[in-house]
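U., I forgot to send this yesterday:
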Amino acid sequence: MVRVEFLGPIQKEPLELNITNLNELAKILKDDEEMQKWLENSAVAVNDTLVSSRDIELKSGDKVSLLPPVCGG
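Result:
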């Protein structure tokens, strides 16, 4: 199982999913109307390392974090 965490202003409880890559996660989250606005703008980290590819292999125990853009000063 992979733990998916939503950080910052994304008001969503963590998920535990049986997925093998970020493409699978994107398909699941696209069906969630609340998440659609965050998907295109959020950075993604796997085990606290930012990633740019959805093809990264995930294994049981991995943590995926969605980091929405922030602004401030």
